[in-house]
Specification:
Length: 75
């Protein structure tokens, strides 16, 4: 189970693609976020997901003044 699903389950929000996208968009575009964090590690789903205007989240993060990295799982 992913981190975002656990967070959503704890507040009784269904973890579907639109809710996850909306949550990430709010998080990544919060005014002043660059003052609190300097980078975000993205898993595959987030790397492939786009904001409501079609901008990839990795680009949104960079435009907000942060660094975007990719977490790949190997087994």
């Amino acid at each position: 189970m992913g981190t975002i699903k656990r967070r959503f389950d704890s507040i009784k929000i269904e973890s579907h693609e639109n809710n996850r996208r909306a949550y990430r968009e709010i998080l990544f575009t919060t005014k002043g976020i660059e003052e609190a964090i300097s980078g975000v590690i993205l898993f595959d789903e987030t790397l492939r997901t786009k904001a409501s205007d079609g901008t990839p989240f990795s680009r949104v993060i960079v435009q907000e003044g942060n660094h975007a990295g990719h977490q790949s799982r190997t087994r």
